[in-house]
Amino acid sequence: MSSSNKKEGLLEMKKDLVLVVEDEVEIGDLVKDYLLSEGFEVLIATDGEEGIRLFHKSKPTLIVLDIMLPGLDGIEVLRMIRKESTAPVLMMTAKKSETDKIIGLGIGADDYITKPFSPRELVARIKAQLRRYKYYGDPSEGRHTLSFNELEIDEKGFTVMLAGEDVNLSAKEFQLLKFMATYPGQVFSKSQLYDQIWGYNHYGDLNTVTVYIRKIREKIEPDPAEPIYIKTVWGVGYKFDGSA
């Protein structure tokens, strides 16, 4: 085999690395076994501090993060991750409160799953998140920049700029903004937006869309209370105003 073919083979064999931050050893080991059987590389952290350390050291492709952790909890770990990475984060929670789930999603989580859960469902959700992340972050030549007055959405670079300044969006925030900006003037219901970004077979709270819209507005609107880009169409949903 030529050296170029060997190099191509090594690139093809590169695996996605999943960091699992879970203090219950049995759950962590179970998740690891299932992910290894599906061809992933896996690292396990049993508390928040170790999770952050491994995150900085290994730069994982995706993070599975428990909310309830000893010491540094999952919400704080997520905040720290989101300061420097848009890698997908799937949160695990044993709580039934929808408030906890929305809080997690509102600060940048991409998905959540409630304990007890099926390991196969977890793996399926991880694969779905990676497909979406790689698609929206694909630096292919077909991507371009969407420009609206002072707002620029770089589909190729997976970045957003407002008046020449970088806007730090999570992966899901970027996907939602990019999708709406691709169809300026078109009104989408919360259900349509949820299905497009999170998947029609994903079971969750439609208020997640409301939380994400609010977060995006706080980052791109001159006055979030009087938005010029993402507008509410009362009784219907939301639209992106391309004439802003």
Automatic annotation (TrEMBL):
A Pfam family hit: Response_reg
- Alphabetical list of SUPFAM superfamilies matching this protein: C-terminal effector domain of the bipartite response regulators, CheY-like
Annotated ranges, domain OmpR/PhoB-type: 143-242
Q: Where is the Response regulatory domain?
A: 17-130
Please give the DNA-binding region boundaries. Answer: 143-242
Kindly report the protein's main subcellular placement as a broad class.
cytoplasm
Q: Which SMART domains match?
A: REC (SM00448), Trans_reg_C (SM00862)
Q: Known InterPro entries for this protein?
A: CheY-like_superfamily, OmpR/PhoB-type_DNA-bd, Sig_transdc_resp-reg_C-effctor, Sig_transdc_resp-reg_receiver, WalR-like, WH-like_DNA-bd_sf
Keyword Phosphoprotein listed: yes
Q: Does the keyword Acyltransferase apply?
A: no
Give the UniProt subcellular location, in the record's own words: Cytoplasm
Top-level lineage group: Bacteria
Per the record, residues carrying 4-aspartylphosphate are D66
Keyword terms of this UniProt record: DNA-binding, Phosphoprotein, Transcription, Transcription regulation, Two-component regulatory system
Q: What is this protein called?
A: Response regulator transcription factor
Instruction: Tell me what organism the protein belongs to.
Output: Thalassorhabdus alkalitolerans
